[in-house]
Amino acid sequence: MTMAMLAMAFAFTSCGDDDEESADKFKSCVFKAEPSFSNDMMNLYDITVTYTAMDGSVKVITPQNGTFPILDEGTQLPATVKLEIKAVKKPTFDEYMNSKDEFNIMINSPLAYASYKTVGSESKGLWSDKYEGYYVGVSREEALVCLKNLEPHMNITIEGTFTKSGSGCTFVKK
After folding, report:
1. pLDDT for 53-104, tens place per residue?
2. How far is CA 101 from CA 10, 21, 96, 98, 143, in A?
3. 47 Cβ contact list (under 8 Å, min separation 6)
């Protein structure tokens, strides 16, 4: 009787290991980005965020309170994504700069993450990129210097491809 119990215990343990292995397998890849800009930045620049999704569709992202939310999930690999952020001074840039004494200059860009989900609903991070720039309550002159420092982070392109790798996937940035 003891041998039968040991055999059953081994059988249950083996099934559990198989479940753990299958729970760790690829389910879907995820690209998420939330570039965001303060109200003053949105009043100074025309900011365009364009996203080419895993399915090949191109979307111009509409801001929500200065944030450009992107969440894309796919199961077909390979899958390529492309995020383009462009900021151009508005025609009213000088007028707006002269209308205030203090500015809140802030960007979080591109605030992008690539990951994949497993069958067991675990998220496995593959890549992330984030730049943060905060200048709060600065004068007009200081704001102009801050904006010059931030400009390289306001015009960026991120492109990469998710590919199958073993039981998971990888993200390779171009």
Report:
1. 999 999 999 999 999 999 999 999 999 999 999 999 999 999 999 999 999 9
2. 74, 60, 10, 8, 10
3. 37, 41, 63, 68, 85, 86, 87, 154
